[in-house]
Structure formats: C-alpha cells, structure tokens
Amino acid sequence: MTPFSQLFTTFLRIGLLSFGGPAAQIALLHREIVEARQWLTERQYLQALSFCMLLPGPEAMQLATWIGWRLRGTMGGLIAGGLFVLPGAVLIAVLALAYSSYGARPEVAGLMLGVKATVIALVA
C-alpha cells in the first residue's frame, strides 16, 4: 500500500509541474504513476483514463482523484485531487488578491497588463 506521505509529495509535485492543458497533465500523470513509481499497470491506467474521458468535466482532475482513491481509498482520492489543483488555485488567488489590492497603482497595472497578455497567449 502506498504511504500517504508518498501520495502527498507525488501529487503536490504533479500539481506544481502540470501545466499545458489536459494532454500534458495526463502524460505527466502517466510518467509519474505508471513509469516512475509503478503504482498502476499500463492497463489499469488506460482503463481509468478511458472512463474519465467518458465523464463530463476535466479528465485529468478526475484521473488524479481516481488514482488517489485506487491507491488509498477516499482519503487518498481527496488528497490526490486536492493537491492536483492546489498550486494553480493558490497562484490564481494570490494574483487576484494582488490585482484587487494594488491594481490601480501604475507600476502594478503595467505588470498585470503583461500577465494578461501572457494568459491570452497561453489560452489562445
């Protein structure tokens, strides 16, 4: 059975490194869970991925939650799913707080304009 500490550090790392959209996130999950740690077989991973793609919503998030659940039950699913989104959520919260608090200042407005342009370029 996978220790909670390993589950915690692995999914925090995945959450910090997973950017670039669902395809990149799913590939990173595969590399970490199947190839590096061998917590799941290729068949288990692909079956779970197929099921997650049938469900509405973000399949990478669903897959991360399922992997945590498969390894450590309900608590494992909550940990894996939560840590998968936590770094991005914290970053957005910090940027939102900075923008609402200091967005009117000229130097911050210029910085935020650069951030907005970067986000548009990444999304487009």
Automatic annotation (TrEMBL):
Q: Which residue spans traverse the membrane?
A: 78-102
- Membrane topology summary: Multi-pass membrane protein
Naming one, the record's GO cellular component terms include: plasma membrane
**Entry's localization field:** Cell membrane
Q: Which InterPro entries match?
A: Chromate_transpt
Keywords per UniProt: Cell membrane, Membrane, Transmembrane, Transmembrane helix
| Pfam families on file | Chromate_transp
Please give one Gene Ontology molecular function term for this protein.
chromate transmembrane transporter activity
PANTHER family in the record, alphabetically? Answer: CHROMATE ION TRANSPORTER (EUROFUNG)
User: Could you say which protein family the record assigns here?
Assistant: Belongs to the chromate ion transporter (CHR) (TC 2.A.51) family.
Name of the protein this chain belongs to? Chromate transporter
From the broadest rank down, the organism's phylogenetic lineage runs: Bacteria, Pseudomonadati, Pseudomonadota, Alphaproteobacteria, Rhodobacterales
